[in-house]
Amino acid sequence: MDSFDFLSPLDARYQGALLPLSKCCGQNCLIKNRVKVETEYFILLSTLGLSNFKLNKQEIAFVRALQNLSAQDFDIINAIENTGYKNIPATRHDVKAIEYFLKIRFQAHKTLKNKTNWLHFAITSEDTNSPAHALILADGLQNVIIPTLENLFKNLKTLASKEAKSPMLARTHGQAAVSTTFGKEVAVFASRLQKQITTLKNLKPTCKFSGAVGNFNAHYAVFPNINWQKVAQNLIKKLNEGRKIKIELSPLTTQIDNYDSFAEIFDNIARINNILLDLAQDFWRYISDGWLKQQIVKGEVGSSTMPQKVNPIFFENAEGNLGLANAILKFLSAKLPISRLQRDLSGSTVIRNIPVALAHSLLAYQNLIKGLNRIVFDRKKALETLKQNPQVLAEYFQTLLRANGVNNAYELIKDLTRTYKFNEEDLNKFLAKQKLNNNLKNKIKQAKAENYLGISPLLAKEIK
Q1: Which of 178, 272, 296, 455 is the most buried (most CB within 10 A)?
Q2: Taking phi first (over 0 means left), then psi (-120 to 50 degrees means alpha), and beta for anything else, what does residue 112 get?
Q3: Predicted structure pTM score
Q4: Which residues pair with residue 172 across a beta bridge?
């Protein structure tokens, strides 16, 4: 297909940016994982002492080599499923297509061609699909999502430390509140993100491998003396070799896994995305206020008609993709754990969109990193704004007066500062009327908003 024929921008406009995710979560990866599950199970069966079924080292090596699918292999598998291949009619079934593909390859081997009856033995398609989808999710998290989030966290941590002592106006309810530092406000996001990344690292996708409705019916009916639960556990152990994020076996299921673990992961990512959505909108506002300057790149265009524009595109793109990702993640989280009776197929088409949700999340993370690398905090402009709002010292004034025994201190300062034109002259007139000692008056007169920072400079460097 020509890229302009793709329905999704993920496969066209954003294809290059998403290549790392495509390599571990794409459609071919799902097929690879299915083949891996089927072949490793086939090998495992050969170790159980079943009648007339034992593999030698050469046969095992041949079977494992089939996991390294070629472009031609993918074409054959897709043909078996969709159009038919040679004397095999179209299966219209993705997992059965894998089984038939493996049978074709076994037929080319002098001894394995007599052992094809052990392929896909006693299992249902979900026993192949469930571990395959779990592996895809684990791979996406381990290889792409978590490393990108950690990179984003490092960028925020660095920015927080750099601007730890840079005063700025804090707003609550959109109104001038008190003083803070830009570094501390960035540190808030870094701290929130760090906590959620830690949680995400500890979550493991689960899967099932227990037959038609989760009871190993066929397994135990034919070979009642084999511990099939242990066989399933050994298969998952084999699939986990060399992995940081491991998948786990659900002991009690219907035909499908309960997907509660998937929902936990999706909800965790959605929380991360909400934190970053908050960040994107705040930084957009700081850019709008002129406190954050965007570096100009020669040749880039902000507007097709207004040459002066340098738009906050990275934060806007991130905001859009975070919203879209969460719409999918929340649906997946709500949908997948629910299935009528022992199984319905409505989740089958839905689960294929896990990489889509991860892709939109990844685009957002990438754009936020780009945005952070293109901004500079304008300390002069931020300080200017802070000085233009001397009323932010009202909290300090009324607290200081209270501490020195002045009655109705809050009300006095409220009447003084709750005006759009409060300035130094108003403050001097107010102090002239008050029966305060000179030391107290001088403290109030000498107060500066840029020094009223509390421990915000220290908090900005709290992130470890």
Answers
A1: 272
A2: alpha
A3: 0.95
A4: 175
Q: Is 6 helix (H, G, I), strand (E, B) or coil?
A: coil
> Following DSSP, what letter does each residue of 340-365 receive, concatenated?
STT--THHHHHHTTHHHHHHHHHHHH
88 forms bridges with which residues in the sheet? 85
Residue 130: both structure tokens together = 């469930």
Question: Three-class SS string for 38-52?
Answer: HHHHHHHHCCCCCCC
Contact 190, 279 (CB under 8 A): no
State which amino acid sits at residue 155. Answer: N
What average pLDDT does the segment 211-232 reach? 97
Q: Identify whether 204 is part of a domain.
A: yes
DSSP strand pairing (375-377 vs 248-249):
unpaired
Place of tokens 């079934």: 93
**Is the domain of 137 the same as that of 221?**
yes
Residue 152, SS3? helix
Residue 4 lies in a domain: no
- Residues 290 and 144 both lie in one domain: yes
173 part of the active site: yes
Clarify whether residues 237 and 335 are in a common domain: yes
pLDDT tens column, 126-166? 999 999 999 999 999 999 999 999 999 999 999 999 999 99
The H or E element containing residue 195 is: helix 182-201
**Residues 303, 333, 339, 360: which is the catalytic one?**
303
Kindly report, residue by residue over 320-354, the tens digit of the pLDDT. 999 999 999 999 999 999 999 999 999 999 999 99
In a shared domain, residues 97 and 149: no
**What integer pLDDT is reported at residue 19 of this predicted model?**
96
Distance CA 30, CA 21 (A): 13
Any idea how long the chain is? 464
Q: What is the pLDDT of residue 1?
A: 60
Instruction: Identify the residue whose tokens are 């300080």.
Output: 383
Using CA atoms, how far apart are residues 406 and 177, in angstroms rounded to an integer?
A: 23
Among residues 173, 219, 339, 348, the one annotated as catalytic is 173
